[in-house]
Design brief:
51 residues; mainly alpha; 67% helix
């Protein structure tokens, strides 16, 4: 029976491209600001800003 460490499983699951990590990190404050801090901006404005 082959056992893989958590690090190996995570490395296989996540893509090797660092752009995915960058997108996740940069979109987190936007989602946090809209969802929890109730910034006065709507989802259509977010979509236009990200385009």
């Amino acid at each position: 029976m082959e056992t893989k460490s958590i690090k190996e499983k995570l490395r296989a699951w996540l893509p090797g491209d660092p752009r995915y990590y960058q997108i996740a990190v940069l979109s987190s404050p936007l989602i946090y600001g809209i969802g929890w801090l109730s910034f006065d901006i709507g989802w259509p404005q977010v979509a236009i800003a990200l385009k």
